[in-house]
Design a protein that fits this description.
This protein is of the alpha+beta class. The protein folds into 2 domains: 285 residues, FAD/NAD(P)-binding domain (3-Layer(bba) Sandwich); 145 residues, Beta Barrel (Elongation Factor Tu (Ef-tu), domain 3), CATH 2.40.30. Helix content is 32%, strand content 18%. It contains 12 helices and 17 strands. The strands form 4 sheets. The chain has a 6-stranded mixed sheet, covered by helices on one side. α1 packs parallel to α10 and α2 packs parallel to α10. The longest helix has 28 residues. The relative contact order is 0.16. About 2% of the residues have low confidence.
Length: 442
């Protein structure tokens, strides 16, 4: 085809987008600033560099991460097969030899006849169909350029609270209410007495924290309003009771009195299957979050779908800006892909590049925009980042079973339940791909 697509960034997302475009006979100009320039986190000259862990999470189909990778292979992924070819022993996870994985992806990209790799930093968005996959550490000039087309919908760090499933909460201990009974009772309230609060406080201030890298520390000296809960707690035993755990305006339905402290959970998605801990952005290690936050009334057996994070991460307010095909609503010639869209994780980033690439293919061929079923992991994540309902306090999200529509039958065994979710997703995606194939050939 005569159309050429620009892809900015040769990370996981950029490589997936470039590959699927090229495999469909579309020429690609892939821009990558390495090795001429490296971000603070990147060290290796190859494409699709894994900068943190070398694990791509669980392999089993009945896990969120495993399901996502399975769907990606069905859709024509480049990175999943490369990861399997360069895997190392990691129990039930898919982990890779970082350099061999990067070399494998790099070789396939550079040797594809429809992909032209252009070295050097890009500071302006090129004309024509363009996929921006510049990553969570987008360089200053490009970040400013992105900000000019996204307005104020650009964040420079990720400050997110933990997310739990609604069905895992002990509803005999918690209750729905709004402060002062204003508006609808949309918040789940977890009341604590003095003894419970003090035990929680001691555990929180002594919990082990993640050590930030040098380039990540600056935001926390600036953004007082997004302070980690453990830092707030360290300022005094009652500080949280005047902040996110203030009991004012709340009546404990168990006692008829105001609790000593209260944690509020706010709906995370339209379906009400996920709730986040309001004001609990944190830099605790994940294991510590599970231990400490499970001390909160009603969360003793909570299933955490996402742990809280606070780190340097450039991302856009996707629900306000993007459609589910990752194109910019105000300019459909521009697509975003990778962590900059608000997906969280290696494979989630790769998935977004794959979908952006497929979407660009369909646009060039004059086909309807891609919209995958919401009961697939890929469809659910793309719906999450593009749902205007999430526009208010949007924070990045990784693959988890909580984003999928609930099944009609309640299954207590988690492995069995997730197996049902996974089988439903695979069948749903299979039928959709058959429909698309018929559409393409008719």
């Amino acid at each position: 085809m005569s159309e050429t697509v620009n892809v900015i960034g040769a990370g996981l997302a950029g490589c997936e987008a470039s590959w699927i475009l090229a495999q469909n006979g579309i020429k690609v100009r892939l821009y990558e600033m390495k090795p001429e320039k490296f971000s603070p986190a990147h060290k290796y000259g190859g494409f699709a560099e894994l900068v943190c862990s070398n694990s791509l999470k669980a392999s089993r189909l009945e896990s969120a991460a495993g399901l996502l990778k399975y769907e990606m292979e069905m859709l024509g992924s480049l990175t999943v097969p490369c990861a399997k070819e360069n895997s190392v022993e990691a129990g039930g996870a898919l982990a890779v030899d970082r350099e061999k994985f990067s070399d494998s992806v790099t070789e396939k990209i550079k040797n594809h006849p429809f992909i032209e790799v252009i070295g050097g930093e890009v500071t302006e968005i090129p004309d024509g169909i363009t996929i921006i996959a510049t990553g969570p550490l987008t360089s200053g000039a490009m970040a400013e350029n992105i900000k000019s087309i996204c307005g104020e919908g650009l964040s420079f760090y990720d400050a997110a609270a933990p997310i739990v499933t609604a069905e895992s909460l002990d509803m005999d201990k918690v209750f729905f209410a709004s402060r002062y009974d204003r508006g609808d009772a949309d918040y789940i309230n977890c009341p604590m007495d003095k003894e419970e609060y003090l035990a929680f406080y001691e555990a929180l201030v002594s919990a082990e924290r993640v050590q930030l890298k040098d380039f990540e520390t600056h935001p926390f000296s600036v953004y007082e309003g997004c302070m980690p809960i453990e830092v707030l707690a360290s300022r005094g035993v009652d500080t949280m009771r005047f902040g996110p755990m203030k009991p004012v305006g709340i009546t404990d339905i168990r006692t008829g009195r105001r609790p000593y402290a209260v944690v509020q959970l706010r709906r995370e998605n339209r379906e009400g299957t996920l709730f986040n801990l309001v004001g609990f952005q944190t830099n605790l290690k994940f294991g510590e979050q599970k231990r400490v936050f499970s001390m909160i009334t009603g969360l003793e057996n909570a299933e955490f779908m996402r742990y809280g994070v606070m780190h340097r991460n450039t991302f856009i307010n996707s629900p306000k800006l993007l459609d589910s095909d990752f194109s910019l609503r105000e300019n459909p010639n521009i697509y975003f892909a990778g962590q900059i869209t608000g997906v969280e994780g290696y494979m989630e980033s790769a998935m977004s590049g794959l979908i952006a690439g497929i979407s660009a293919v369909r646009r060039i061929k004059g086909l309807e925009p891609l919209k995958l079923p919401s009961d697939t992991m890929t469809g659910a994540l793309t719906a999450y980042i593009s749902d205007p309902y999430n526009n208010g306090k949007f924070q990045p999200m990784g693959a988890n079973m909580g984003v999928l529509p609930a099944i009609s039958v309640r299954i207590k065994d988690k492995k069995q339940k997730y197996g049902v979710y996974a089988n439903r997703a695979v069948e749903s995606l299979k039928h959709e791909l058959e429909r698309i194939d018929y559409e393409n050939n008719s």
